[in-house]
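User: Structure with 4'-deoxy-4'-aminopyridoxal-5'-phosphate, tokens only please.
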Amino acid sequence: MTDTLTRTRKDDFPGLFTADGAPWHYLDSAATAQKPQAVIDALARAMGEDYATVHRGVYSRSAEMTLGYEAARRKVAAFIGGREEELVFTRGATEAINLVAYCYPDKGRVLLSQLEHHSNIVPWQLAGWQVDVCPLTEDGRIDLDAAEKMLTPEHTMVSFAHVSNVLGSVVDGKRAADLAHSVGAKLLLDGCQSVPRLPVDVAELDCDFYAFSSHKLYGPTGIGALWGRADLLDAMPPWQGGGAMIDAVSFERTTYAPAPQRFEAGTPAIIEAIGFGAACDYVANIGVEAIHAHEAKLVAQTREALRGMNDVTLYGPEDSAGIISFMLQGIHPHDLGTILDEENVAIRAGHHCAQPLMEHYGIPATARASFGIYSSEDDVAALIRGIERTKRIFG
Ligand code: PMP
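Assistant:
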């Protein structure tokens, strides 16, 4: 095997082995990524010898923890080219999108696309936005020519997945921003799948909000981030009330802290934030460009092998980023997933929280293989072997 990125990285991830020490071919990184030992160690330290609360302690351990927590905010912001005062810690991408959907003061029409994850659909519906849906191109990209025709001055928000969690298709974020801005709307990019696999710079993209989750970026669950332009965050009212988000409280009148603290009510996810920062360090040290190139090679190999089987339907564009959806004729993706599991191959089977996209293709589910830093040609070979075995079983 010639894959240096994989060879050096697989041992960093204790989760990549079965209970009896055999390799586990984990092809579900789009759902959640395995954690490197560096992140696990950072979490253990934050929970152990470094642990204390943040922002209020007068004792030195708390002051140090506060520095660590705020350093994590700087790392996460810098990871996407943003500034710390623009970075709100949330529970994840889902909460980040909910925050904008509920708090953005100019609730008008929002343009979404046919391929969105439910977490970029339901919050807008719940918060009372008028939702319009941009169609897809033949090869499964958000059709920005159609978006251009659909956008009107009534639209105050456009919210697109930067990378589709089902198809891996990448939207041209800068063009989407230009289109949104041309009618006076803002652009939110759901960066859940892009941040782990594409270099992201919010200034270059010229977007207004960017949402993502730590656990898909090799960090812990329970934390994510909303990056927003400072002037937009400042214009948004608080969301949840409680400690840490205030300036001064009285029964007559309460005033609020500036962003980002205004949106972080209560004791924050201190340990998780430290782990999120450690994950950014780990990934930045490898380089997202290298990860992107590595995953692109594995995608090309997998697509080619699947195309060689004439009873496979492939979804999404050729240059999908790290994620491939497919169907075997006459075999339900759940059956495929179950048989692959017997071979220590883990894929995702289902609607991937994107039911409108399944409806678009007229199917209930797809099988999805998705890659990460640690994925290898061996994993691809195990997947293909498993698919061939499944086909033999189903005759
Ligand atoms: N958007 C996309 C594109 C996703 O893939 C996911 C997670 N599958 C989410 C949003 C939601 O992320 P989380 O569950 O971490 O909040």
